[in-house]
Structures are given as structure tokens and as C-alpha cells.
Design brief:
CATH class: Alpha Beta
Number of domains: 1
Largest sheet: 8 strands, mixed
CATH architecture: Alpha-Beta Complex
Distance between the termini: 37 Å
Radius of gyration: 14 Å
Shape: globular
Number of helices: 5
Helix content: 25-40%
Oligomer: single chain
Structural class: alpha/beta
Low-confidence stretches: none
CATH superfamily: YbaK/aminoacyl-tRNA synthetase-associated domain
CATH topology: YbaK protein
Number of strands: 8
Length: 158
């Protein structure tokens, strides 16, 4: 419980430091998938931000991909943009880099700065919802403000 609270507090502090206005919501149950998040927040799945952490191949730097709920990461396309293929990280590696458990990885508040890339599809909405540091906590934000707060480069994921 204390670790979960610390993770959520880290997200709040990072948002405040970045000047990002967010509103939090804690759910009674897990919202580990985009569909669960969307149902719990009363929005469509494309308004959900999936925060996915990959590593550049060969033990390179970790990168954070902010992807619209139903979209999948085209690893070949992303590799062309980043100049290196991507590798999935296991749950322990993700926690070590971000401080968040899978399902609760937030777009901001990671333990270390991450190069961040945002799905252009998220910009079609006035508000999006993202994990807030725990599998049952989310926050709402303006997607453009979120991109600015995270320093995300906007790219096409689908």
C-alpha cells in the first residue's frame, strides 16, 4: 500500500512540477487494460493512453511510448524513427526503470527520465486518461498539455 501511494504521489508531483493540470480517479478494481480503463472512465478506448516501456536493442536506452488504447506498436516503423530496433522489457526491468508496476506505468513520474513518444491519434481528443502510478489509478489530462509536460515527440503508431 505504501509503495502504491508513493507511486501515485510521484505522478502528482511530476504533473505539478510540469504545470500539467490533471484530475485523478482511483478505481475499486484493477484497470490494467485499455478496455477496463475506458469502461471505468466512461470514455472510448482510443482516449486511453497506454504507457509502454521498451529498450533499444542491444541493451540500449529505455523509451516510453504513449499509445492510444486500441493501437498496436509497429516495431519496425518505430525502429525506423528511433534508428534502432526495440526490445520488450520484462516486468522487473520496467519497474526498475520507471518505479511503476506494469498496468500502472504513468506517462510522467518515472524514476529516471525517458525519451518519450506520443501517438498522434491521442491528439484527436480534448481529454485522455492515463495510468497514474498504480493499476487502479488513472488521471485525465489534455493530450497536448501531456505531450508538452512529458517532452514527447508526436509520431504515428498505426
Amino acid at each position: 500500500m505504501a509503495e502504491r501511494t508513493k507511486s501515485i504521489d510521484r505522478v502528482r508531483a511530476a504533473a505539478e512540477a510540469a504545470g500539467l493540470a490533471i484530475s485523478f480517479r482511483e478505481m475499486a478494481a484493477s484497470t490494467r487494460t485499455a478496455e477496463e480503463d475506458a469502461a471505468a472512465c466512461g470514455v472510448s478506448a482510443p482516449q486511453i493512453v497506454k504507457s509502454l516501456v521498451f529498450r533499444k536493442a542491444g541493451g540500449g536506452e529505455a523509451v516510453l511510448l504513449l499509445v492510444s488504447g486500441p493501437n498496436r506498436v509497429d516495431q519496425a516503423g518505430i525502429a525506423a524513427i528511433l534508428g534502432a530496433p526495440l526490445e520488450r522489457m520484462d516486468a522487473r526491468e520496467v519497474r526498475d526503470v520507471t518505479g511503476f508496476a506494469i498496468g500502472g506505468v504513468a506517462p510522467l513520474g518515472s524514476l529516471a527520465p525517458l525519451a518519450t513518444y506520443m501517438d498522434e491519434d491521442l491528439l484527436a481528443f480534448d481529454a485522455v486518461w492515463a495510468a497514474a502510478g498504480a493499476p487502479n489509478a488513472v488521471f485525465q489530462a489534455d493530450p497536448r498539455a501531456l505531450a508538452e509536460a512529458t517532452g514527447a515527440r508526436i509520431i504515428r503508431f498505426r
